[in-house]
Amino acid sequence: VQLVESGGGLVQPGGSMRRSCAASGVTFSSFAMSWARQAPGKGLEWVSDIYSDGRRYYGDSMKGRFTISRDNTKNTVYLQMNSLRPEDTAVYYCAIGVSGEGFRGQGTQVTVSS
């Protein structure tokens, strides 16, 4: 099983960024996928889930700003992040399963700063 994440980096407050996570070694379409993040000095925070049937759920501070999606033909899950805030700065992980608690990718830093 492998999760390869892309995207990430530095963005200004109010900006947007899209993260991608390509899965291999699993029957991707059968699994829920999720995103989680970890800010410096803090624990893992759940960001969003997308189920195999397309249902989507978000953490409270992400609602209306983040959008999770998936492309089962590409075995890829995406996280579109808009209206980014400095407090969104964290290492972002994709995961197989919900709540970010399953097998996770390597994580990528997202820094929101002017």
Account of the 3D structure:
The protein is mostly beta strands. Helices cover 0% and strands 49% of the residues. It contains no helices and ten strands. The protein has a six-stranded mixed sheet, with no helix packed on it. Strands 1-3-8-7 form a four-stranded antiparallel sheet, with no helix packed on it. The radius of gyration is 13 Å and the shape is globular. The termini are far apart. The model has no long low-confidence stretch (mean pLDDT 96).
Q: In a few lines, what is going on in this structure?
A:
With 114 residues, the chain is mainly β.
Considering the chains and any ligands shown, give keywords for the structure.
single chain, 114 residues, mainly beta, 6-stranded mixed beta sheet, 4-stranded antiparallel beta sheet, 10 strands, globular
| Overall pLDDT | 96
Instruction: Please list the strands of the largest sheet in the order they lie side by side.
Output: 2-10-9-4-5-6
- The whole-angstrom Rg is 13 Å
What is the string of SSEs from the N terminus onward?
Answer: EEEEEEEEEE
Main structural class: mainly beta
Reported for the largest beta sheet, the result is: 6 strands, mixed
Care to count the β-strands? 10
Estimate the global geometry from the Cα principal axes: globular
Kindly state the percentage of residues in helix: under 10%
Distance between the termini: 37 Å
Number of helices: 0
What proportion strand? over 45%
Low-confidence runs (pLDDT<50, min 5 residues)? none
